[in-house]
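Batch manifest line 481
LIGAND: 2'-deoxyadenosine-5'-monophosphate
JOB: complex structure
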Amino acid sequence: MKKELTFALNYALNKGFQIHPDAFKILENFDVKKLEKIIKEIVREKTKQKLFQINQDDLETYLGIKEDPTLQSKIKVLSDPTKKITTGEGVKGYNALFSSRFNKLKRIISDRPESKKLKSIASLKTTKQEGDTYVCGLVTSRISKRNISKLTLEDPSGLFEGIVFDNELQKTVGTLLTDQFVMVRIGLGKNSGFIIKNIILPDIPDQAINKSESEVYAVFLSDLHIGSKYFMEEEFTKFILWLSSPDPVARKIRFVLIGGDVVDGVGIYPNQDKELICQTIEEQLKKAVGLIEKIPKNIKVIIMPGNHDPGRRALPQPAIPKKYNSSLWEMENVVMVGNPAVVSLNGVKVMMFHGQSIDDIVKTTPGLSYDKPTNVMKHLLKARHLSPIYGSQTPIAPEMEDLLVIEDIPDIFHVGHVHRAELDMYKGILLVNSGSWQKQTPFQVSVGMTPNPGIALMVNLKTFQVHYENYNLELDNILQS
Ligand code: D5M
Ligand code: FE
Ligand code: ZN
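JOB STATUS: finished
ARTIFACT:
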């Protein structure tokens, strides 16, 4: 008999309780991590009622084995690029993409009072400056030399160049990303150049968050890297089995979100085959299916691709195509979406994005690092764009519409990619970086990246309380904040 079980039984017996044989059977068949707590709770409650037998019904109620009919699991896909992907051609496509980006973000910023004074860049040449003037555009360059910064913006009418003298404002200039949308307040300098007096980002307005009516939990996962030698198969399997355990939190889980890098892929980086256990995409996906099948059918599973998954590399990515393994598409409780996607879980809006752009942003922005991915996520929210920088490491497809603009404000922002589980809040939005289930790879060792794999983060969609299960024995201090 398991140690926890013996302890729990002795506790109840010492308190003068009898345990009905049916109840005993339930206890024996479940691997109950929190058994001690549960038994103590039952003993306390039943002592109050002056009833001294623990029966099957008590256990089912306390273990939550009984299906709770009040727990909802309504899922709606609010935005998915899969069917919208058209891919324009060459320069024409990119012109359309950037013009779509500009127009969408100008619409977002037009909610601000300052935007009433907004002028087009071309009109600055022909009209006199009176009072405050604002222009907006996509950042084409930012240069800091000695004590001056120079910022260049582009709108459909032309290019604007302004100088920044103020020290604080220069720091802001330093954090701007190429191709990000900004609005600036400007004035005329002595030699008729423009001075930038303020920089305004589209950002997130204060808003009320949506909550689920019932206390349902959603689990946030990503970066499983199934097929890799470093995939933590044993730990991940244990976690998947925990989902059907009597743990009170597990009993309330109705959603599992997988934010990309489901499999490790093939040919993603040089000599990858030496680090693979499964050498083909089909084999890798088959293994993924085997694990996802173990998730109870009353839990909806949302699967989004990352840079290691099949489909296309450039953002936005379509859902993992059916041709590689149709069974994921055929599973009744699985919803396949592209990257990025917005889903509503019992009315709670979750924006899912794998997070490829984090690599480019960390490289070019002072103060941001891989250790604190949620700070990068805040940067994305302020810019209202998931991958502003064009032409760096993250490939962006020449779509006619920019599907990476953050139009809808989410309640939860779910990102992965950097293999560090971390939580934070920004303007009422819960930021979740869902970490990974892949051990540190030789590549990550070589660049000094320290992942914290094996942690499952989950959120109560009614209270927004967070719960985690740690399957990584090497980690003591699981979450930094
Ligand atoms: O990426 C996991 C993390 O490792 C992510 O932050 C990118 C980084 N990474 C992985 N491979 C490379 C290369 N070749 N160059 C730069 N950075 C890299 P994942 O998508 O899981 O591989
Ligand atoms: Fe990954
Ligand atoms: Zn990735």
